[in-house]
């Protein structure tokens, strides 16, 4: 429902994106970042971290009862994750479209998951699925003072301000 609401896009909207351990292992961090950069979005937070089971259970609190949850924990804690916050108009919905369907087999060509992955259990990247989800995830993964307010010099030509 969220996706079809008509609203004025805020250039300050933020979303949480993560390159999952398979993406880091496969050296896809640069390619993932490149897609959001070339679209015109602004990076406002970035870190490489080893995720704890505690953080993961909060991040995926709606999934803890799913049969695949133990595998998801093993996957997401198997190596470093690159956690990011990106900013721009309508960014939550746009990044979901750029990331593609949860199951790469159903993702459209040109999306990150379709272009770089084959299986739902190794789908390279995470993107928040709603404004509320994004706010919750950003607060969970980042301290406020690690998110930077800065002016991108091309902002006046990439977005209507
Ligand atoms: P997302 O928002 O598109 O990432 O999808 P979900 O929030 O529904 O699920 C979170 C993550 O759990 C997905 O990105 C997958 O990595 C994993 N996942 C979801 N469904 C399945 C499944 O059926 N099997 C397995 N093994 N993993 C799944
Ligand atoms: Mg999700």
Automatic annotation (TrEMBL):
InterPro entries: NDK-like_dom, NDK-like_dom_sf, Nucleoside_diP_kinase, Nucleoside_diP_kinase_AS. The keyword Repeat does not apply. PROSITE patterns: NDPK (PS00469), NDPK_LIKE (PS51374). The active site is at residue 126. NCBIfam families: PRK00668.1. It holds the Pfam family NDK. One of its GO terms (cellular component) is cytoplasm. ATP binds at residues 20, 68, 96, 102, 113, 123. Belongs to the NDK family. This is Nucleoside diphosphate kinase. Transmembrane segments: none annotated. GO terms for molecular function: ATP binding; metal ion binding; nucleoside diphosphate kinase activity. Its cofactor is Mg(2+). Residues 12-149 form the Nucleoside diphosphate kinase-like domain. It is found in: Cell projection, Lamellipodium; Cell projection, Ruffle; Cytoplasm; Nucleus.
